[in-house]
Amino acid sequence: MAEIANGTDDGPPDAGGLLPVGENPQGWTEWEAECWMSPDPFDATAARQFKDPFPLQEEWQWEYDYYDHSLHSPMLHQSYTHGSVLLGSDRPGEYWTLVVTGAQHGQVWWLRDGCAAPYADTPSEHSGGFLRWVRDWHTRQGWWKTD
Predict the structure, then answer these.
(1) Does residue 125 contact residue 136 with C-beta atoms inside 8 Å?
(2) Nearest CA to 99 among 91, 114, 110?
(3) Long-range contacts of 103-110, Cβ-Cβ distance < 8 Å, separation of 24 or more
(4) Residue 13: its pLDDT value, please?
């Protein structure tokens, strides 16, 4: 990330920019997820756990696959706080994160109400690493393409 930019507004006008390393997106501490199903509220003020592995390996739609708090609540919280660096936000409740620890190391994930998914610029693609994500973001291709 430091080789590309430690924070920049270049990119899609509605995407809010690439955050400086260690900074939280605007609205990170205020958003209220419609599909946050854990009985424990999201604590946006908690320190991020970079050394603990990011818990997911494939897309997870917890709004449809959440039936056991003891099984799912820890994984839901860890998806937002473990093993990743926040890159930015498209809007409150939707965040881009770069996984830095765990099996998904180097992949960019999208966290939003009810779902977490690896970045893919087309539905048939399984995942996209940071360089692909930042290229697409900067050139308004892939996810942000308006044509």
Answers:
(1) no
(2) 110
(3) 103/53, 103/54, 103/57, 104/54, 104/56, 104/57, 105/54, 106/130, 108/133, 109/54, 109/56, 109/84
(4) 45
Q: What percent of the chain has pLDDT over 70?
A: 78
Rounded-to-integer distance, Cα 54 and Cα 146, Å = 31
Tokens 């390996």: give the residue: 57
Nearest CA to 55 out of 87, 126, 110, 103 is that of 103
Give the SS3 label for residue 44: coil
Q: Which residues contact 55 (CB under 8 A, 6 or more apart)?
A: 75, 78, 79, 82, 83, 102
What are the structure tokens assigned to 52, written together?
């603990």
> What's the mean pLDDT in 90-112?
90
Q: Hey, what are 72's tokens?
A: 């799912």
